[in-house]
Specification:
The complex is a heterodimer of chains A (217) and B (486). Chain A has 217 residues and is α/β, with parallel strands linked by helices. Helix content of chain A is 31%, strand content 21%. Chain B starts with 9 loop residues before the first helix and ends in a 15-residue tail after the last helix. Chain B is α/β, with parallel strands linked by helices and 486 residues long. Chain B has two domains: 290 residues, NagB/RpiA/CoA transferase-like (Rossmann fold); 51 residues, no CATH class. Classes of the chains: A alpha/beta (217), B alpha/beta (486).
Chain lengths: 217, 486
Amino acid sequence: MSQAREEILGKLRQAYGRGPGAPVANIPPTARIVPRTTAAPETELAQLLTEIGKLSGVTRRVASMDGFRAALADLVRAEGVKRATCWTTPEMDAWGVAAALQALDVEIVPADADKYLVAACELGVTGVDAALPETGTLALTSSPDRPRVASLLPRVHLALLRPAVLRPDLHQVFAETQAAGYSVLISGPSRTADIELTLTLGVHGPKSLYVWVMEMA
Amino acid sequence: MSQVPTTIDFRRNTQAVPAQMPAAVQKATAKFLGNRAVLVEALGNEYWQTLRQAGHDIRLHAITHIEHYLEKAEAAVTRAGGQVHWARDAEEARRILLDIAARHRVKLAVKGKSMATEEIGLNHALEAAGIRVLETDLGEYIVQLKGVGPAHIVVPAFHLSKEEIAALFHEKLGVDAPAEAEKLTQIARMKLREEFLSAEMGISGGNFLVADTGTIVTVTNEGNGRMCTTVPPVHVAVVGIDKVVPDWESLTVLLKLLARSATGQKLSCYTQFISGPPRSAAETGPREMHLILLDNGRSRILKTPACRETLLCIRCGACLNICPVYNNVGGYAYGYPISGPTGVIFASQILGPKVAGALPFASTLCGACNEICPVKIPITQILLHLRRRVVEGDETEDAAAPHSLRLGAQVGAVAIGTPGLYRLGSELLKRLQAPFVRGGWMPRLPAPLNRWTMSRPFPAFAADFRQWWRDRPAAGGKRGNNEPGA
């Protein structure tokens, strides 16, 4: 082990006047908080959509596969989408995301393609692993079929969420996501107020965030 | 960007503050404080106080067992496939980073906003080694183009007008930039997009380091932090050893406090959790991840029990926003990248009294910082200790104040502690001041006392408390109007 490591750890022990392997106190109960309690599922969902709206996200409830394809056609037209990159989870396959986009003449760019190609996509489509109504937050983990660039590089991020992923508070989200090598909490589209405190969207990440609730059976 | 100064002359720095600074600072701080107040009220003050106590207790627990949690974090990062380096000081941290850069033949590095990399003067070192380094937080990008450091830890360029930024973009980037926030932001997005994609290395800080899983947590709004840690093939995080927290339950408390206190958001736009490099070759993300754990004087801060809580800070900037001194001078007067009350207590210990002896005095001790701090750092108590350290020295540092000041303080201490001397002195003062008093005030005093009276009169010394005490009516008798009630 490095000399720097030993020296720093030594200085820290010395600062508290103890040796290696000193006992560690339990985390005091006052350092813990109780998670938020939830309302009825429909109220929770309504709150999630309201909060996302407040953060300039655009929400929509999708009730059928036909409705989904029609909404996708609207989005592709409105945002001028020519290329898209998508998660490839079983859920995305079941919704037929890539096929529906291809049917709209959108080229699908695999997330592991050259990063310049992925960055040139207008649209990134992802699922959602958990969502927090109180803050309008989406939790996304990363794995080979959940590429992290899909929610980052394209100008538009479309997140497809099942109502079942709603969680009361960060506690429950973290219980599920902390084993992942990477996760991100997304609350609204990329933003800055660095120039004269004027809120501006889309500084480095996506300029637009669409969140659709997939309620088809 | 920011270089560690030889001595910080706060007084002189305040004289160099541009005229438009206080107004720009106050516009920003009022907005942040206003947004914060709305969210705190929505949570209810009682719950907010519970959260603050929890934040304090978890941070205190973490730094009280800091070496235990650091070893745990190190093991977890290593298990996750990351590489951990320990840096005793700024020089060692820079050398570690330059070594990694050299191994990967890095020509361009992109950087997310990080106070730790400001602290170690990383940009200078990289540039000296022929590596281009780009700040990518919009505010940091702007101040880097301008060739200065951050004026605020959360919004570094808030003191520049959009016209100044447009002129700067025109001059440095050669683009015709209209003075509109939206257009300027788009120009920065386009310029930086190129750089993100071509950079060989991404550098970040870390808001927290979770010991259980070796997770580096970054809290950002723009997405540049995600870019720096996702797109380039190598990611290096420079994290102060004080950032360690035990587990993810700790984060449930601290994340609720941080964004609300910093920018008045419930959560920042992007909160990232990075535990090592991607686990599979089929997963996108950097191929290599390094964590540099930086001491640089933090272990020294822990040596003095009265100062330990300095390291609870989560760098939200709320104490800057509420501080009457900061609101009138802005960040540059402090001569250090971390400014305001938390910057004062941190920098004066990291740099030592000889360099930063002026900083503990750059405060009115009004205590607003204590009240607003989301992790309840007793900032003014620490300031008082640091003032004493400057004047008298303590177990970690020698005194740095001029001998005359120390002598004056010692004479004062003896005089105040000896009743006879005190009485004599107060009688003497009354006579000495007589020629200067005009209606209860002293409008002008001879040097060196004129440094006070140049800007405001000094109240005449009354020195009649003892007499008043002697002459007051006996107990049970009629009380004077200004005596406190029973």
